[in-house]
Design goal:
Layout lengths: L5 E5 L3 H9 L5 E6 L7 E2 L1 H4 L6 E5 L4 H10 L8 E3 L11 H7 L1 E5 L3 H11 L9 E3 L9 E2 L2 E4 L1 H5 L4 E5 L5 H10 L8 E3 H4 L3 H9 L11 H4 E4 L5 E2 L19 H5 L2 H11 L12 H5 L18 H10 L23 E4 L21 H17 L6 E4 L9 H8 L8 E6 L6 H10 L2 E7 L5 H7 L5 H17 L4 E7 L8 H10 L4 E5 L9 H7 L10 H6 L10 E3 L6
Parallel strand pairs: 1-2, 1-4, 2-3, 4-5, 6-7, 6-10, 7-9, 10-11, 12-14, 14-15, 15-16, 16-17, 17-18, 18-19, 19-20
Antiparallel strand pairs: 8-9, 12-13
Helix pairs in contact: 9-12, 15-16
Length: 569
């Protein structure tokens, strides 16, 4: 935004602070309210300004009276003032502006392109797509969503061409072709997910949402989760509906870490709305319902004084170097995250009814793409982090990609590692190699039975006796102190809930620090009737009577047991 005029914010409290957290390049001259107090001037200050000297941004939930007041003193909408909401579109990728000035092609005619046309092109007819590009000889002369399909050479002959790459598997190859022809990433071509991100929609969601929690979760400022397709999130608990909005790590890591989408995700935590957090994924958020505040109180952090905020930062277990901004009391974003969770390879040696119907392994091409992605992480990100976590998806020791990350640390300074594993491949030799590479190793093991028959049925492909041998070795290392932390997870379901007390006994025998019991999530392809039978919780999230009876067992009340509560590994 050009600042040839003084910028005046009309409003006070939460709205302008939310707005300026994301639009942080705007230099505000002063704030006004109908009846100003303290640092906020009264509306009369605007009346005294010379005509054409100020530009007013309305940051109020009810804009009508503000517009009327500004019209009354002779200011013109769009010339002398606008609403903050009218500026949200500036957060989106400027595809509309580009489409008016350049010839836009969609590069690719596969599944990703098919979804892009459905999700974006057909819903935005004002964005003109001239055609599609594909190197497949069989597609020449055909159409895709009523657009002609061109050969790459034909489209590249157009000096004014702009390309939207709608392909994940072939993105790097297409990128190489475009770069060879002098095209610049970000200026002449972008991935389709960059175009189909709606930061403006997300901004509107959290700005107008109701504050819920009087707490600031530090994860958006310290943690990064690397998801499928190279998407970046602040953690794994972002709502599914937002996954298409998560930024793709296709430019530099710094660009995506400080992107508008990431800023808005952080804002939704700072302002107490938690608009994009899924309590079905984040058990911490579900447990914190008791902390929900009265929205009429406006009693959350961004309305407090600097002294109160500083006290919160000191008492809410923030990292010691947390910095509070002098002007609007916000936490400043770090250059790099401290903790990174790798969750982008679904390869696993087991297939569990609660997770997937069959064993999944990335094919050769997918492995090559993931290894290429890992090379970038090794140079751009991993040297700057303190703690590495593997794996939020798949099995850490079944994936060649994850094993390369874990056992090829290069010149990294990362001394801490957290492993989420089913434990079947975590042999003594495997652990010893981890202990050589890292000063601190934390391991979180997932197994859904306390006896052989149940465990091998619910963790299809597992050898329970061999698994127990691995666990006994880990238990010895935990007792010796070579293993910093050992915890276990058990997904509670109809076929295993009676074994919960016995599971506690078994894990304590392995010197477990924590034993977590998790709710069953609806598996892919599972019908409502099947899930109703499998789950021990009703539609309102309450325990069914049979589970409520089992949890009365005194073994489930031990301090090591986390009954449907979060364990940080």
């Amino acid at each position: 935004m050009k600042q040839d005029k003084k910028i005046v914010i009309y409003g006070s409290g939460r709205y302008p602070k939310d707005f300026l957290y994301v639009f942080d390049s705007i230099e505000v001259s002063y704030y006004v309210e109908d009846e100003g107090q303290g640092e906020v001037r009264s509306f009369e200050a605007l009346q005294k300004e010379e005509k054409g000297a100020v530009f007013v941004i309305i940051c109020k939930y009810d804009e009508r009276s503000a517009r009327a007041n500004l019209d009354w003193i002779g200011l013109k909408n769009g010339v002398d003032y606008t609403s903050a909401a009218a500026l949200f579109y500036r957060l989106d990728f400027p595809i509309r502006k580009i489409a008016k000035e350049r010839t836009v092609y969609v590069y690719g005619t596969g599944d990703v392109s098919h979804h892009f046309f459905h999700d974006f092109v057909e819903k935005n007819p004002d964005v003109e797509i001239a055609g599609c590009v594909d190197g497949d000889l069989e597609k020449r002369g055909k159409t895709f969503f009523r657009r002609p399909v061109y050969r790459p050479e034909e489209a590249l002959e157009n000096p004014n061409a702009f390309f939207i790459i709608a392909s994940t598997r072939y993105y790097q190859e297409i990128k190489a072709v475009l770069l060879c022809h002098g095209k610049r990433e970000g200026e002449d071509f972008v991935p389709s997910c960059a175009v189909n991100q709606w930061a403006s929609w997300m901004m509107r969601e959290t700005i107008y949402d109701v504050p819920r929690l009087d707490y600031i979760c530090p994860k958006p400022f310290t943690d990064a989760a690397l998801m499928g397709e190279g998407r970046l999130s602040v953690c794994a608990g972002v709502r599914d509906v937002e996954n298409r909005n998560l930024p793709l790590f296709y430019g530099s890591f710094g660009e995506v870490w400080h992107s508008n989408i990431m800023k808005i995700l952080r804002l939704s935590v700072l302002n107490g709305t938690y608009s994009f957090c899924d309590e079905q994924k984040c058990e911490w958020k579900r447990d914190c319902k008791r902390r929900m505040i009265d929205p009429d109180e406006l009693h959350y952090s961004m309305h407090r004084t600097k002294e109160q905020i500083t006290e919160i930062a000191q008492t809410k277990a923030y990292p010691k170097d947390t910095i509070l901004h002098e002007s609007n009391y916000r936490i400043r974003e770090r250059e790099y995250p401290e903790v990174v969770m790798c969750s982008f390879d679904g390869t696993c040696n087991l297939h569990c009814p609660s997770c997937r119907p069959a064993v999944y392994a990335a094919d050769q091409r997918q492995r090559e793409l993931l290894l290429g992605f890992t090379e970038r992480l090794e140079t751009e990100l991993f040297p700057h982090i303190k703690r590495l976590k593997v794996a939020g998806d798949g099995e850490a020791f079944a994936s060649n990609v994850y094993k390369k990350i874990l056992f090829d640390p290069r010149e990294r300074k990362t001394e801490q590692v957290g492993i989420l594993s089913n434990g079947t491949l975590l042999t003594p030799d495997c652990f010893d190699k981890l202990a050589e590479n890292y000063a601190s190793v934390k391991i979180f093991i997932s197994m859904d039975g306390a006896v052989k028959e149940t465990a091998e049925r619910l963790r299809a492909g597992a050898d329970f006796e061999r698994w127990k041998e691995n666990m006994r070795y880990l238990g010895e290392k935990r007792k010796e102190g070579r293993l910093a932390f050992l915890a276990f997870n058990f997904v509670v379901q109809r076929d295993n809930y009676l074994e919960m007390p016995e599971y506690v006994d078994m894990c304590l025998g392995f010197h477990a620090d924590g034993i977590k019991f998790s709710r069953l999530k609806k598996p892919v392809g599972c019908t409502e009737e099947e899930f109703e039978r499998m789950s021990l919780f009703d539609e309102r999230g309450r325990m069914k009577p049979e589970l409520a009876k089992v949890v009365q067992d005194e073994r489930l009340r031990r301090p090591e047991v986390f009954l449907f509560r979060w364990i940080d590994w």
